[in-house]
Amino acid sequence: MTQLKVVGDEAETEAETRLLERLAAEEGRGLLRFLTCGSVDDGKSTLIGRLLVDSAQVYEDQLKGARRDGHGGADDIDFSLLVDGLQAEREQGITIDVAYRYFSTPRRKFIVADTPGHVQYTRNMATGASTCDFAVLLVDARNGVLSQTRRHACIVSLLGIKKIAVAVNKMDLIDYDEARFDEIADDFNSFAKPLGFEDVAFIPLSALKGDNVIAPSAHMQWYHGPTLMGHLETVQVGRAPKTQPFRFTVQWINRPHLDFRGYAGTVSSGAISVGDEVVIHPSGKAVHVARIVTGDGDLDMAEAGEAVTLVFAEEVDASRGDIIAKPDEDPSNADQIAAKLIWFDEEPMLPGRSYALKCGAQETTATISALKHKLNIDNLDHVAGKTLELNEVGACNISTGRPLTFDSYGQSPETGSFLLIDRLSNLTVAAGMIEFGLRRATNVKWQELSIDKGARSTLKGQKPCVLWFTGLSGSGKSTIANMMEKRLHAMGRHTYVLDGDNVRHGLNKDLGFSDADRVENIRRVAESARLFVDAGLIVMVSFISPFRSERRMARELFDEGEFLEIFVDTPLELCESRDPKGLYKKARAGLITNFTGIDSDYEMPENPDFDLSTRESTPEELSEKLLAELRSRGII
Amino acid sequence: MKKSLSTYLRQLEAESIHIMREAAAEFDKPVLLYSIGKDSSVLLHLALKAFYPSKPPFPLLHIDTTWKFREMIEFRDREAERLELDLRVHTNPQGLRDQISPITHGSALHTDIMKTQALKQALGEGRYDAAFGGARRDEEKSRAKERIYSFRNSSHNWDPKRQRPELWRLVNSHMAPGESMRVFPLSNWTELDVWTYIYLEDIPVVPLYFAKKRPVVERDGALIMVDDDRLPLNEGETPEMRMIRFRTLGCYPLTGAVESTASTVPEIIEEIVQSRSSERQGRVIDHDQSGSMEKKKQEGYF
């Protein structure tokens, strides 16, 4: 295709010249990513609509749409209809998700994250804020600073945004009253002092009427500051990532043939040149940069933001997730970290539960070992708590399956942030900001022992394993486990039974029956079972273990084939009619709460190793069946 | 004056490359949805850069409704050959047997069977777990809310209320078997960015984007090009040669042209800067009813 090269047509050359001139003139023009937030009905969408329309970024047919969809039929354009993208939002008249808008002026390009005001959508606000350098916080002049305003200011500061503008909107409805404006500014300042903003600009405006949005207002002669647009065009933001330590995360190994091995990724901070010595983390291997490859040819140097492919002079194995840094600028490495978490999921955070953690291109498992405290998001005060609910923020200690290579979030958001993902629902359940690695992590070393599991089990002449019985209370778990142990014992096998009730009298007597305690209950018993299996025993665990996640976590502690999940499949009605301990009766009477099957969930196993239905068979028959299975698997 | 990418476009380019590499590393079997339009051209260009010197580690897939402009198909085959790419073309066989046409069956049914259903078939048959698309957030209101990794359940449906939050540069690729992800590396590009990039990088695009005298009829305010003799003419309708071009390309009976004299990329850019109507205005399917794009997306439309 050569349409670009055709010369000779006067008009074309002129258009091309004009284009090149415009591009050259705009070259120095930077980009500002900002978010708008504030309480419901403070007029965010209207403000963005106004910015778009007045900077001529809205097309005629879209304007027509804003009139057509409206309920009112007024001649005025409903600015909010331009930006509230989803049908549900238009129906409810609220913004439930982050929407991104793009506009530009001769001085700057802008990407706006329009974020929701309602309490339940705080997570979306955090999402919008994570990529922004600046925030516009709207306040309705009639209402002043509300708890939503405070909450949003806190989230903005939590995500590391240093400069904000407080746009006091709807000034037209309070007769452009200067005293009221000053009062709101004072109010905000006295609250926001501990949040550590470097710069807060207060701007009185009316998004609906256009006062001080783009053009200065004729109604507020008392205000001498910039208009909102004026401020957006000139405010200086951002750290200087180019002067920070060099960080490069390996995303993808580029290996088209045997003679080329490159590491594709993005420079997240700092700069690198050909010939530089670098260190690959976590292996700690030092190498030299031989080439910086791009689709447009090799570069001599690359700096923050550039997506390149590094080739090293030395033969070395690096993998996805590795972080490349300069020799005297090591990132941290730890398997225990302190981090702030923003919880995103309807399911609360449970300490002890195993989640997937994604940090840059690194992925591992993680459990929250302790919730140190929750943050009251209205003022960042510390509050005691055991779990995090949707939209709550907490400071946690987290232990990871593999050590992480990272920086603190304050130093480098790119290498200091992570997501937690639920391993069953696959939803993103939390966003995390790393504060520091815990010393403890590097100090607890694994003690190498001379006699191992293989040696112990060989001596016993058996293959150690755990038979994990799960099922409702009264389903027959303990009966069958007990019978199995008697049979195995008679056969000369070395066994042990961990029974839910018994363990709760000792090891787990500090735990109750909340979801969080149930998770910890299972974690401890799974770890105990692992020690017994390591000792060479055949272990029977008889625990209700109602949650799939924890049964899966338990399974993952063991080698392939060592963990057998046995579902003691007895319907609730049958368990309840048996009621060997009289517990169902009490639960129904409300004397016991959090009782599995009554007011606490039991998640049935989807793929148990054995499904023991107790309706048609006696415990003896079921034990016989299980023994046969163990024989066929070579365990006994 | 010399052509070179502006700082801002270099930034956009790097972000898109980052997304493509991330998806290529995380998914088992990605595919690039190639629709032949300008956004697809840019997407393909970025893929060639992202994995250089390797070829993109995924095939291209085109859903052919059989009603695309002839010049689009010629362009597609020429490009695939020139770049030595693995191009796969899929048409809904049932729709082909039933001779589904936008003219006799209406745009809604045609789009559903020949695009949405066909896409689902192709993704299912190829067992693709991720599909790159060229959608941009500035195109349409419901697109503005879509994630870079847009999750689809096993029926390929989009649930706008259960989108996964995306913070920083982190995306969640976890899925159950049968579920899939649509990946949109151009999310943060605007129409103007795309054209400026096409100009500065000399990226080939279908000639239909450039103004030329073409046979058209006017229907409900839209200029429909008579691309072949399958378009039945209403009484009194005679195709006339008008100087037109297309801002967006789809099935020819559903794609309205604009009158224009812009015959080069710089002229197109000038026209966009001065224009007062958005590029999707020419798309008949978006206007079926208010919120119609959102509805189509929930049903699995790209």
Overview of this structure, please?
The complex is a heterodimer of chains A (636) and B (302). Chain A is an alpha/beta fold and 636 residues long. Chain A has four domains: 230 residues, P-loop containing nucleotide triphosphate hydrolases (Rossmann fold, 3-Layer(aba) Sandwich); 79 residues, Elongation Factor Tu (Ef-tu), domain 3, CATH 2.40.30.10; 112 residues, Translation factors (Elongation Factor Tu (Ef-tu), domain 3); 180 residues, Rossmann fold, CATH 3.40.50. Helices cover 29% and strands 28% of the residues of chain A. In chain A, strands 2-3-1-4-5-6 form a six-stranded mixed beta sheet, sandwiched between helices. In chain A, β17 and β18 form a beta hairpin. By secondary structure, chain B is of the alpha/beta class. Chain B folds into two domains: 205 residues, HUPs (Rossmann fold, 3-Layer(aba) Sandwich); 80 residues, no CATH class. In chain B, 33% of the residues lie in helices and 15% in strands. Chain B has a six-stranded mixed beta sheet. In chain B, α3 links the parallel β2 and β3. Chain B is globular, with a radius of gyration of 19 Å.
Question: Layout of SSEs?
Answer:
The complex is a heterodimer of chains A (636) and B (302).
Chain A: H1 10-26, E1 30-38, H2 44-54, H3 60-68, H4 79-83, H5 87-92, E2 99-104, E3 108-114, H6 122-130, E4 134-140, H7 147-158, E5 163-169, H8 178-192, E6 199-204, H9 228-234, E7 247-254, E8 262-269, E9 271-273, E10 277-281, E11 285-293, E12 301-303, E13 307-312, E14 323-325, E15 332-343, E16 354-359, E17 362-376, E18 381-383, E19 393-406, H10 413-416, E20 417-421, E21 428-437, H11 439-443, H12 453-460, E22 465-470, H13 477-490, E23 495-499, H14 500-505, H15 515-534, E24 538-542, H16 548-556, E25 563-569, H17 572-578, H18 583-588, E26 610-613, H19 619-632
Parallel strand pairs in A: 1-3, 1-4, 4-5, 5-6, 22-24, 22-25, 23-24, 25-26
Antiparallel strand pairs in A: 2-3, 7-8, 7-14, 8-13, 9-12, 10-11, 10-14, 11-13, 15-19, 15-21, 16-17, 16-20, 17-18, 17-19, 20-21
Helix pairs in contact in A: 13-19, 15-16
Chain B: H1 7-26, E1 30-33, H2 38-50, E2 60-63, H3 70-82, E3 87-90, H4 93-97, H5 106-125, E4 130-132, E5 149-152, E6 180-183, H6 191-201, E7 212-219, E8 222-225, E9 240-245, E10 256-259, H7 265-274, H8 292-298
Helix pairs in contact in B: 1-2, 2-6, 6-7
EC number (chain B): 2.7.7.4
InterPro entries (chain B): PAPS_reduct_dom, Rossmann-like_a/b/a_fold, SO4_adenylTrfase_ssu, Sulfate_adenylyltrnsfr_sub2
Region (Disordered) (chain B): 279-302
